[in-house]
Amino acid sequence: MNKFSWYEAKSVEDAVKQVNNTVSEELYLPSGKAAIFKSGGIDVLDLVKEGLIQPKTIVNVRNIPGLNKISFDDNGLRIGANVTLAEIEGNEAVKTRYAALHEAVAHAATPQLRNMSTIAGNLAQRTRCWYFRSSDHPCFRKGGDKCFAKHSETGQNENHAILENDRCVSVYASSVATALLAYQGSVMITNGKMESRQVPLSEFFVAPDQDVSRENILEPNDLITEISVPAPDMNTKSYYSKQVQRASYDWSMADVAIVAQMNGDTCEKITITLGAAAPIPIRAYEAEKIVLNKKINEERATRAAKVAMENAKPLSKNSYKLPLFESIIKQGLLEIA
Ligand SMILES: Cc1cc2nc3c(=O)[nH]c(=O)nc-3n(C[C@H](O)[C@H](O)[C@H](O)COP(=O)(O)OP(=O)(O)OC[C@H]3O[C@@H](n4cnc5c(N)ncnc54)[C@H](O)[C@@H]3O)c2cc1C
Fold first, then answer.
1. Does a structural domain hold residue 176?
2. 117 lines ligand 1 (CB under 6 A)
3. Is 108 in the pocket of ligand 1 (CB under 6 A)?
4. Do residues 226 and 300 touch, judged by C-beta distance below 8 A?
5. How far, in Å, CA of 175 to CA of 165, rounded?
6. What's the pLDDT tens digit per position in 244-287?
7. Packing angle, helices 321-336 and 298-308, rounded to 10
8. Is there a domain that residue 27 lies in?
9. Of all protein residues, whose CA lies closest to atom 12 belonging to ligand 1?
10. Considering only CA atoms, which residue is closest to atom 6 of ligand 1?
11. Residue 117 Cα, ligand 1 centroid: separation in angstroms?
């Protein structure tokens, strides 16, 4: 682990002035003089310990006043960037109005990790693909020229992507993002000129075929200050399920979030999102169309689940993910019906 200096940011303005790189850019093309953001520090410090980044300065944004509040009103939910996953899990409005988000947060990592992990850090963490995390494997995401996981014989790809996996086959690490995307959440970002912009999560994540060096749109100096989620419509029902190998805690093998507005048993609005299916969390648009403005019954739920997996290209060791996703999507649709 390299030595770095520590800067304790006192305000948003102070923080964005100190930083000169993103973790993704530093990892892809090391500058040797990077100053990067750290909130809970779980992912940043893992990357330093793994020898994947050698920052010169770590700018701690964890204690910036005002970024640790969570509130709910008619406009929806606002979660400050430094709110921890444990605080979201314990919030009454989240529990009662955003059941799928609550379920996702409550099943992320361990209680100890949820006490440290901030929502901004969770959304901006890097993939947990074991080839990416090993300094011995120069993969596409680290400026190399191959995807080690994709190899049909040697690739240990049981946890990897089955959709949108033409180049890099890693999956996005945040299972909380799957639920936030289903609720059509947004992130508020402030840049180095102190200009703020709101970015829907549907535009926040970056797929490898757009730019393999990064997983989100954050530029150096871009600080996430808040996550917002619209107020649920009347008669909104939601569902979240995360499938893991170990019951105690684990990264997701497959997770699905569904947020639907129901009129009786007819579905008037729906988002179905899939985590650990592709390199970024994705919407299953074609599956949504099968049930939109229709009654959700066994036959339609089965068909929607099949359609969601229609374009899947499983790798040598993860075809189990197809029936797994199909069964969770079907179960979720029948539960909200
Ligand atoms: C064993 C283990 C199991 C886990 N399981 C899960 C799981 O099942 N589901 C899940 O969702 N997560 C899981 N996690 C992830 C964990 O919950 C943390 O959310 C995550 O590691 C990072 O949160 P952090 O606050 O520590 O971020 P940090 O490590 O501080 O930062 C992560 C990234 O975000 C950037 N960053 C931080 N704050 C900001 C900001 N305000 N603006 C812009 N950029 C910022 C940093 O520069 C860095 O690139 C797991 C982690 C571990 C170690």
1. no
2. yes
3. yes
4. no
5. 18
6. 998 888 899 999 999 999 999 899 999 999 999 999 999 999 99
7. 140
8. no
9. 174
10. 109
11. 6
Ligand 1 centroid distance, CA of 173 (Å): 9
Rounded distance from Cα 294 to ligand 1 centre (Å): 39
What's the pLDDT tens digit per position in 127-168?
Answer: 999 999 999 999 999 999 999 999 999 999 999 999 999 999
Q: How far apart are CA 331 and CA 150, in angstroms?
A: 30
Give a yes or no: residue 301 inside a domain: yes
Residue whose tokens read 């079907």: 330
Q: Please tell me what DSSP assigns to residue 149.
A: G
The CATH number of residue 264's host domain is: 3.30.390.50
Model confidence, pTM: 0.97
Distance 85 CA to ligand 1 centre (A): 10
Distance CA 181, CA 77 (A): 14
- Number of domains comprising the chain: 1
> Which helix (H) or strand (E) is 230 found in, with range?
strand 223-230
Q: Output the pLDDT for position 224.
A: 98
Q: What's the start-to-end Cα distance of the chain, in Å?
A: 52
Structure-token pair, residue 19:
């930083």
